[in-house]
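Q: My labmate handed me this sequence with no annotations at all. I'd like to see what the chain might look like in three dimensions before we decide whether it's worth expressing. Could you predict it?
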Amino acid sequence: CTAGSPLGTARLLVTLSAKPPIINGLYTNKTIIKVTAVRHSKKQIDCRAEGTPPPQIMWIMPDNIFLTAPYYGSRIVVHKNGTLEIRNLRPSDTADFICVARNDWGESMLVVRLEVLEMLRRPTFKNPFNEKIIAKPGKATILNCSVDGNPPPEISWMLPNGTWFSKGIKTSQFLTGSNGTLTIYNPNRDKAGKYRCAAKNKVGYIERLIILEIGQKPSILVHPKGPVKGISGESLSLHCLSDGSPKPNTAWTLKYILGNYVCKAHNNDSETALREQSKTYFDW
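A: Here is what I predict for the chain of 284 residues:
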């Protein structure tokens, strides 16, 4: 600007500076971010706006309510610097929150997609102990790996040969269920061994061991070659060694006062066990 008179001339230089708004240092008109928070906690979301002239900051809430900084509510606060604060988060707060920064030269927008989660929990097994299962040959057997946690853990199984199966895998020999089970079709000695169940989520990882054995009919290992003789009045030991899976129980019965003693070996009576019996006789 120049002003003149008979007495002289004066000049004034004015420099105009104008900058459209930017949010959080991002030189884009629209930015979309995802954030998570835990239920009942407090969450602060930054919306630091810069520009010339200084931009006005406004938050658009999910129910289309406009909150201009600063704003102080009982649960929601918009600070002078544009930060949105939400207290005592609820599942219904899972939504999009939009920050708009505007001046005479333009506007910039930040879309925040908030997800409210339940309290995060590491995976835990409902049965935390290692386990041994005895399967009946040829009968489908289910290994259980029930687990709890938040977010819901991903479950996988490692077979005795080191192969890993995730959920939803189905082959001619195995099926992994969505509830953490592993079904073994037609179990035999080739499928016996150590199975590992693993569960993981974003806050933890755990493993559990299940040993699978294949049931075996009981058998008596030692049989007398003939009558066992004893001396009247002295003690006499009769041996009855047995084998099987599960480990057999043995019982003795006296058939006659002077005659046969019978040893019986039998497995426990359960769904995955065999129930058979073998006998050996001792005559004297």
